[in-house]
Design a protein that fits this description.
Elements lengths: L4 E5 L4 H12 L3 E6 L14 E4 L5 H8 L4 E4 L9 H8 L1 H13 L3 E5 L11 H17 L3 E5 L2 E3 L4 H12 L2 E4 L5 E2 L1 E3 H12 L7 E3 L10 H12 L4 E4 L2 H16 L8 H8 L2 E2 L17 H15 L5
Parallel strand pairs: 1-2, 1-4, 2-3, 4-5, 5-6, 6-11, 7-10, 8-12, 9-13
Helix pairs in contact: 1-7, 2-4, 3-5, 4-5, 8-11, 9-10
Length: 313
């Protein structure tokens, strides 16, 4: 008897590159939507069927979903110049994926959203992720399961790489509000938890993912773990909120000039938000226990960066 098909969007993105091998290991036949045939070290050993296309291509989405038991919609945008830019991918893309899944008779769809969707007023990104959840739910109802990961890090992540690069060359490093708490998760742990949702766990609900510290870490703990992974010592200095506001304003000017900076006023508000922890009621019982706490996860990530030539020795 053949393996059930798990269709994936966003399989060539950071999380998707971890998700495809995990689904393969879990016994699924993996089918991915991609603009071109994906080749990546993290995919070694994965024999995925590739559907060439993109989210705006309804025919490609139909081919992706045809005969699949589950669709994992992991495609998303974290940087955009405007709210409309976020919505075009994070809202319209989620709606199109859900529509294709319904038309093909897919049993369920797992939408990979974000913990930021809990606070849609903070930024265009957060609002688009929340709206994407609503758009997909309108189409699929209880056939939709929503996964809300917190900040994800791990091998292949370009965003966390910037933190490690900056810390490697800066003896004094800024830290932020001491009461803030930030939940995080290693990409492989996130992939394993999403794969469990794809298998039917937590069906029809919103499940927030986390590592073994769902209440989150203080900024100082995160930065000290990053320094330890690099093998350096850094003095941490509290950064006033005003500095974040100014950096966000500069980012807004860069966006007006045609760029898509990661630090915008909305992103600055996300950074300043004090509660990015995960409550007991937001979690889904029975998800795979995380293999990585932050110290071991950061150490493994830095080792991967160095072996890949992304970070100096």
């Amino acid at each position: 008897m053949g393996r059930s098909v798990a269709a994936i969007t966003g399989a060539t993105g950071f999380l998707g590159r971890h998700l495809a091998p995990v689904l393969d290991e879990a016994g699924w036949s993996v089918r991915v939507l991609a603009r071109r045939d994906p080749i990546h070290a993290l995919w070694r050993g994965v024999e995925a069927e590739v559907v060439i296309g993109e989210l705006a291509d309804q025919a490609a989405l139909a081919r992706l979903c045809d005969g699949a038991q589950v669709l994992v919609h992991a495609a998303g945008l974290i940087k955009a110049r405007t709210a409309a830019g976020f919505d075009a991918v994070n809202v319209s893309g989620a709606r199109e994926a859900a529509t294709a899944a319904r038309a093909a008779g897919v049993e369920r769809m797992v939408l990979v959203s974000s913990l930021a969707a809990r606070e849609p007023r903070l930024s265009h990104y957060a609002a688009s992720k929340r709206a994407g959840e609503a758009a997909a739910a309108e189409v699929l109802g209880e056939r939709l399961t929503i996964a809300r990961p917190p900040a994800i890090y791990g091998p292949g992540d370009l965003e966390t790489l910037q933190l490690f690069r900056a810390m490697a060359r800066t003896p004094v490093f800024p830290t932020f509000h001491p009461e803030a708490r930030i939940a995080v998760i290693h990409a492989r742990d996130a992939a394993r938890q999403i794969a469990a949702l794809a298998g039917g766990m937590g069906a029809g609900r919103t499940a927030t993912l986390s590592d073994a510290r769902p209440a989150g870490y203080a900024w100082s703990e995160i930065l000290q773990a990053a320094a330890a992974a690099l093998g350096v010592r850094r003095r941490l200095v509290r950064l006033p909120d005003l500095v974040f506001d100014l950096a966000g304003a500069i980012g807004a000017l860069r966006r007006m000039a045609g760029g898509a900076p990661i630090l915008t006023p909305g992103k600055a508000r996300e950074f300043r938000h004090l509660n990015w922890g995960v409550s007991e009621g937001e979690r889904c019982e029975g998800l795979p226990a995380p293999a990585f706490e932050i110290s071991a996860g950061f150490a493994e990530t830095v080792d991967w960066y160095r072996r890949a030539g992304w970070l100096g020795a």
